[in-house]
Write a structure and sequence with these properties.
heterodimer; A: 404 residues; alpha/beta; Aspartate Aminotransferase, domain 1; Aspartate Aminotransferase, domain 2; 2 domains; 7-stranded mixed sheet; 4-stranded antiparallel sheet; 14 helices; 40% helix; B: 140 residues; mainly alpha; Sufe protein. Chain: A; two-stranded antiparallel ribbon; 6 helices; 2 strands; globular
Chain lengths: 404, 140
């Protein structure tokens, strides 16, 4: 059982007021809030052992290096990677995707095919479009149905010996659909294609096991799992990371430099040019610790209750239409109210201290599919409560009244 | 009336309200008085970029005065553009270019002035002034 009142005490921001009302934060799919335990780690780092890592002989540098590498191991254990050097620290999910897309530029040629799903975030569409433009490869799309489920049978017709890469998110940010990535990975591997899974929306809610998934690349951001912004991770299978060329040149990623030639450092440093976000990496590790202490099963169960509760309440309101009704989804509800612009609802809710996201959620193709300008998206984390949902429902009814 | 006089009039109207709900309700009502853009101008060319909702604006000049019509698919945004058009319409382009828009703050809509705000109030003001600049060039 999850003691939500105890957990809420860990999050100082949940005490603040917005427009004179207690904050109700339902924009967790955009960024999660940070517990005191993680904030303390950040303060401790800058108060006690801030230093550049991997090259200093002095004590501070040694301590910072140890803490940073320990964080890498924590993430390795968390996602069950075979080696710690298969975990690359990035600035976030988008960086991880770009790193892989850029690496594949030298591996793809004209006639090759890349497949993405119709449920993708822009950050998982644009880098592949750019990759295809650079290499002459073709981009193909796995279509979705009205519920927001991918049509997997279509994937079979798209896959062939020219398919080199398949990119899919584990969970859709706009609709909350949990995609059947196990099937997608198996199907892609059958034709020899590599698979990158965008875990930005899954890592806050479940614990991925990259070895049992047999996934080639998996990316996520710390700021969605109670960590700070500006840090994330790319998991890549060792053999793939060795095949990809470095993304950026700079310090840290080299073994030897002369003006004639540079030899690159081994993994993971080959992909971590320059001074990394040391504090961010350490805080990322602390955030993973924090969530594991609560337990991902406990979290998933509680969030599912919130999702069911809120969905049921919303369905009672006349004119509300929920988008994304996949059988398997996380605690994200995308919806609209008949004849009212999502932006208007979002503005009025904000005046009542309630933070939701409105707009296209960086997933315009999904909005085009439903032929809507956008939606209102309420997304819950384990620190949200049913009481907050009640307040949200009351506020929503009030805004509908004002805006009708 | 000058732009400053119209702004003062709007400030007076908004000062009657005690809370945000009444202010927003009034703004929504003002949206209903907006001189609507002719359907033929509701095209991509007339959309103001930087707004989460769609805002279309059209301008014309008659006797050296600029007149605006507009519409939006969101009613709060429609209220905001209605206020701006009431301030700027039927004015000389030079007056529009030189006008300051501090009154927004005084009617309790300061939060909409942030350049990152999705409703694009700043973009709307910029676009109305761009029209004025274009007409001013024609005059000089």
């Amino acid at each position: 059982m999850l003691d939500v009142q105890k957990i809420r005490k860990d999050f100082p921001i949940l005490n603040r007021k917005v427009n004179g009302k207690p904050l109700i934060y339902f924009d967790n799919a955009a960024t999660s809030q940070t517990p005191q335990q993680v904030i303390d780690v950040i303060v401790d780092y800058y108060s006690n052992y801030n230093a550049n890592i991997h090259r200093g002989v002095h004590a501070l540098s040694q301590e910072a290096t140890d803490a940073y590498e320990q964080a890498r191991q924590k993430i390795q254990t968390h996602v069950n990677a075979k080696h710690a050097h298969e975990i690359i620290f990035t600035s976030g999910t988008t960086h991880g995707i770009n790193l892989v897309a850029n690496g594949f530029s030298s591996l793809l040629k004209e006639g090759d095919e890349v497949i993405v799903s119709a449920l993708e975030h822009h950050s998982n569409i644009v880098p592949w479009q750019m990759l295809c433009e650079r290499t002459g490869a073709t981009l193909k799309i796995i279509p979705m149905d009205d519920n927001g489920d991918l049509i997997l049978s279509e994937l079979d017709t798209l896959l062939n010996e020219n398919t080199k890469l398949v990119f899919v998110n584990h969970i859709s940010n706009a609709l909350g659909t949990i995609n059947p990535i196990e099937d997608i990975i198996d199907k892609a591997h059958n034709v020899g294609a590599a698979v990158l899974v965008d875990g930005a929306q899954s890592c806050p809610h479940l614990k991925p096991d990259v070895q049992s998934l047999n996934v080639d690349f998996y990316v996520c951001s710390a700021h969605k799992v109670c960590g700070p912004t500006g840090i994330g991770m790319l998991y890549g299978k060792e053999e793939w990371l060795n095949k990809l060329p470095p993304y950026q040149g700079g310090g840290e990623m080299i073994a030897e430099v002369t003006f004639e030639k540079t030899t690159y450092a081994g993994l993971p440093h080959k992909f971590e040019a320059g001074t990394p976000n040391v504090c961010g990496g350490i805080a990322f590790g602390a955030a993973i610790d924090y969530m594991n202490a609560i337990g991902f099963e406990t979290i998933a169960q509680y969030e599912h209750e919130l999702l069911e509760y809120a969905t049921h309440q919303l369905q009672q309101i006349e004119g509300v239409k929920i988008y994304g009704t996949a059988k398997k989804k996380t605690s994200v509800i995308s919806f609209n109210v008949a004849n009212i612009h999502p932006y208007d609802i979002g503005t009025i809710l904000d005046k009542m201290g309630i933070a939701v996201r409105t707009g296209h959620h960086c997933a315009q193709p999904i909005m085009d599919f439903y032929k809507i300008p956008g939606t209102i998206r309420a997304s819950f984390m384990f620190y949200n409560t049913k009481e907050e949902i009640d307040t949200f429902i009351t506020a929503l009814k009030k805004s509908i009244l004002m805006l009708s | 009336m000058t732009i400053a006089e119209i702004q003062n009039e709007i400030i007076d109207e908004f000062s009657m309200f005690d809370d945000w709900e009444e202010r927003y309700q009034y703004m929504i009502d003002l949206g209903k008085t907006l001189p609507l853009i002719d359907e033929q101008y509701k095209t991509e060319d007339h959309i103001i970029k930087g707004c989460q909702s769609k805002v279309w604006v059209h301008a014309n000049m008659q006797d050296d005065k600029v007149n605006f019509t507009a519409d939006s698919d969101a009613i709060i945004t429609k209220g905001i553009i209605a206020i701006l058009i009431r301030v700027f319409s039927n004015q000389h382009p030079k007056a529009i270019i030189e006008a300051n828009t501090d009154f927004i703050d005084k009617i309790g809509l300061k939060e909409h002035l942030s350049p990152t705000r999705a409703n694009g109030l700043v973009s709307m003001i910029k676009q109305l002034k761009m029209y004025a600049i274009a007409y001013q060039t024609q005059l000089s």
